[in-house]
Amino acid sequence: MSTIPFSTQYKRIATEEAFAPADLIDRYRKLYESHELNDPGFDSLWGFYSSSKAARPTFIREKLADLDAGRIADMDATGVDHQIIALTSPGVQVFDRATALSLARECNDVLEAAVRRHPTRFTGMIAIAPQAPEQAAAELQRCKAVGFRGIIINSHTMGEYLSDTKFWPIFEAAEALDLPIYLHPNTPPKSMIGPMVDAGLDGAIFGFGVETGFHLLRIIVAGVFDRFPRLQIIVGHMGEALPYWLYRLEYMHAAGVRAARYESMKPLQKKIGDYLRENVYITNSGVAWEPAIKFAQQIVGVDRVMYAMDYPYQYTPQEVIDLDNMQMDLADKRAFYQTVAERVFKL
Ligand code: MN
């Protein structure tokens, strides 16, 4: 039984919740030990999480693999009614094409079975192998047919970004199938991570956010939403700071286009903020902070900001109490916790 006095005026739907089969974590550990990937970000992240004996990584390893009683008990203890679950970062995006394709399928099957066991508590997002864009589109079709309601992509795939047109079959399929893409962080690629690791700033503390915000910005300025106007992308961590940057992004993008400074920087049909308001949803994963949530609501609209806990990485019951206590109209709080997610994931 819960000991926390949760509000019961709305359902809590947590939208960026992670899982990983124990077998995948084992593969991450072996990949780290082999140093074959030559990716300092992966080595930093999974060198730590796959084998550290400290309390937090041990808890996280155990909970990532639990799609039954342990996870549901943790949800009950924090008043979370429903989780939108996705394969943890970096998903299958660090493996060769063939391995990534078969692993994505296996992980999707594991998640589908869990959703079947607990249909009122879990909804799944589809893991894909961006390394194989055409086959990824086929996996989307297969999984949508069995009840998945979104797509998880853990940011860059071995240093490559979805702004590259070779990945656009994925956007085309997502738009056609009406499946939102959750663009979740990954550690920055080798080309970007440089001086972050030695300062301890490569992970969720900072590197995740700037890399993923940068990725979404690349997608926007590449004209992806002009080409796929109904495509919807969800980003966590308060929009990876983009709302806070928005004024200057728009000013400098317009200036760059006018001056024809970059060959790649073409005029867009709309302003960057228009895409945030029409094609992007923001969750507060990892940021249980009233001023940031209200600022995002002010910039992109109450109907574009959703709740996420980032379980099991940031499992802190007090955060739910803090969010319940936000000074916010009940209707807006219900949108944040419940109704926007119900609409986005068709619950
Ligand atoms: Mn997360």
Which terms would index this structure?
single chain, alpha/beta, TIM Barrel, 6-stranded parallel beta sheet, binds manganese (II) ion
Give an overview of the whole structure.
This protein is α/β, with parallel strands linked by helices and 347 residues long. The protein has a single domain (13-344), classed as Metal-dependent hydrolases (TIM Barrel), CATH 3.20.20.140. It is 50% helix and 10% strand. The chain contains 16 helices and 9 strands. The strands form 2 sheets. A 6-stranded parallel beta sheet has the order 4-5-6-7-8-9. Strands 1-2-3 form a 3-stranded parallel beta sheet. α14 (290-300) links the parallel β8 and β9. α1 crosses α2. The longest helix has 21 residues, at 97-117. Manganese (II) ion binds next to β1. Manganese (II) ion binds at residues 16, 18, 184, 236, 285, 310, 313.
